[in-house]
Design a protein that fits this description.
The structure is a homodimer of 217-residue chains. Chain A has 217 residues and is of the alpha+beta class. Chain A has a single domain, classed as NADH Oxidase. Chain A is 46% helix and 15% strand. The radius of gyration of chain A is 19 Å and the shape is globular.
Chain lengths: 217, 217
Amino acid sequence: MTHSISTVTLLHALHWRYATKKFDPARKIPETDWHALEQALVLAPSSVGLQPWKFIVVTDPAMKARLRPAAWGQSQVTDCSHFVVLAVRKNLSHDHVDRHIGRMAEVREVTTESLGKFRQMVMGNLDKARAEERLDLWQSHQVYIALGQLLASAALLGVDACPIEGFEPEKFDEILGLTGTDCASVVCCAAGYRAADDKYATMKKVRFKPEDVITRI
Amino acid sequence: MTHSISTVTLLHALHWRYATKKFDPARKIPETDWHALEQALVLAPSSVGLQPWKFIVVTDPAMKARLRPAAWGQSQVTDCSHFVVLAVRKNLSHDHVDRHIGRMAEVREVTTESLGKFRQMVMGNLDKARAEERLDLWQSHQVYIALGQLLASAALLGVDACPIEGFEPEKFDEILGLTGTDCASVVCCAAGYRAADDKYATMKKVRFKPEDVITRI
């Protein structure tokens, strides 16, 4: 690992980021940077590697305008450069697992048969979670890992972001055409650049003292 | 933002990371790097900034050995350098909100009275979620944002990690003394350095094609 960054660079970025309240609507994320942030989503870790998600990236102004009222009218939806809706795959199916197994076989150049034990283990885990009615909950957690990786990555590239849970998922699903599919909106993230006059940008970051959230044993 | 990193550096780190199966038990994370990773947890974004979490960092070999059987005997628990248990604060209380408000007032040098409207909004949101029995679920999602930020940060510092959901939360809570408190184990993360002979380190990363998980509108 020769490419690692310094702790100073990391902490500078994590201090610099904040939930951007006001984006500069004139500034767009350059293609290279956005591609990297999409890759941060694609490469996000997930339980057993199942990637139980879909990311809807909205840049179309008309679509942003339709979504905004279903997100409490928050200006970030329309003023950001790229608005991402992170969706979970509901009731994760055996078909999905088989698609993943197929992809494993393709990428690692092995037979699907050689992955039989893994397949069985995964199917068993999913079916158990399904029976206990915690499958969607489990998978929705994974979507938040992707969100966390996206937020940290954006900060490191100098791209502002605002995670948004304040929206009506059913309305979003309807507007985005997800209703009736196996995908459902879980959380959103607006990305772009802070407006020069966003007063939240200069407010001191508030965190509990480390000793109040970290216990060392 | 002058400290931002290149997309090449970011993507190199995100490709480099993998769920480490076998850690080198002899290698410990240097103090400076670990401090930065704790800061990545402390600085993680959370809904309304409430930080509904506690992070238990285990380095004591005896404690690791006690936890391991409750994590399906996985070797990462004992062989890693730092083993983190990410816990959620259950049934998030008005007291917690008031601690946060108190901290806001302290850090931003304002009166708690000036935060009255914010306080009311947050309390209302929590009570609504509590009434709808989705409060703990909502807060547990936040814990996964912290996990995502931790995993990306570790990769960027060249520190290996393995997120672990395969453990018995009730047993962990008992062993860690969380039973009967407002905290409950949600997910874990082992951090350290890959063993030279971890065969998973050289396997090709498997991800769906971008077009299969990303939709652009």
